[in-house]
């Protein structure tokens, strides 16, 4: 290993967060959502560690599902957006995949294919207006699926637009629309709760919850860290100081000279940049730790490097000093705030360049 940028993933923390989600809704089954490479944490390794504990996995695409099957993951896997082409139903049958279903093409092609799908999650558009059937269409879809003989169970599913805002009544309105639809259909299983809803809203008992970002110890709520919510952050992104220099008051630093030294201080250059997934939008002042001491970004993020200074002192900085970019002592949610984004984006946008290292109970 040469370039000293490492993302250390705590697999036991992810398992602990999954179990915590189940504890919050003990009557529900739970998907472990591992889409987008397990939110940047490595889908195969995460799934291998959770296999045997989870009720099922959930992914966004059939390619993500097949990657898990090729890694010998045997648990049920659900396609959250359903199939994109009719021939994908044959792959669902072959590999025992479950699927969401939300449009006429998906329904008609399922009814026309040979084989059996154990569970289909009919997606209801309860107000987010991205995917899903209407309240009026839902009974027709459920009837067609149940009478086809090609589906074991139909479950009604929806997604909340504003569950991360506890002052917003949209979630209550969506729940009301969902319950009205269930009454039109009659008895049917449910799946409504993403991470925010799991943690802070009352949801139907006995259905399927869908913990995603909370699995990785990251908060779905603004102004709160995962640790403050009782979660265990799973990723620590670290690098090292690769160059040290002194700058004088008035010296400019980096592209665009966006940082001007207010006084003489030590400047550290660190091996990480937007080519690794560190946010280019991060502002000067974005927190980090250098050798355990509070430090902050000084200047614009480059493709491969950043520059930083200690926050409260000008103690010695040396080549090879460890830098915590996010993780213990530097919540990823804080870095996201300084970058005008959310923790979801920081971990999922990481490229293949950081070295991924895994820790587990062994």
Would you kindly provide a written description of the structure presented here, covering whatever features stand out?
With 362 residues, the chain is α/β, with parallel strands linked by helices. It folds into 2 domains: 11-216, TIM Barrel (Alpha-Beta Barrel); 235-359, Lyase, Ornithine Decarboxylase, Chain A, domain 1 (Beta Barrel). It has 11 helices and 18 strands. The protein has helices at residues 11-24, 35-40, 43-50, 62-70, 88-95, 104-112, 138-147, 170-185, 195-200, 332-338, 343-348; strands at residues 6-10, 29-33, 56-59, 77-79, 97-101, 117-123, 151-157, 189-191, 208-209, 235-247, 252-253, 259-260, 265-270, 287-290, 293-297, 306-310, 322-326, 355-359. The strands form 3 sheets. Strands 8-7-6-5-4-3-2-9 form an 8-stranded parallel β-sheet. A 6-stranded antiparallel β-barrel has the order 10-13-16-15-14-17. α1 packs across α3. The radius of gyration is 23 Å and the shape is elongated.
Keyword list:
362 residues, alpha/beta, TIM Barrel, Lyase, Ornithine Decarboxylase, Chain A, domain 1, 2 domains, 8-stranded parallel sheet, 6-stranded antiparallel β-barrel, 11 helices, 18 strands, 27% helix
Can I get a quick summary?
The protein is α/β, with parallel strands linked by helices and 362 residues long.
What top-tier CATH class of the largest domain fits best?
Answer: Alpha Beta
Radius of gyration, taken over Cα atoms and rounded to an integer in Å = 23 Å
- The total number of structural domains is 2
CATH superfamily (homologous) name of the largest domain: Alanine racemase
Mean pLDDT: 96
The oligomeric state is single chain
- Please identify the structural class as seen in this structure: alpha/beta
Number of strands: 18
Do you know the CATH architecture of the largest domain? Alpha-Beta Barrel
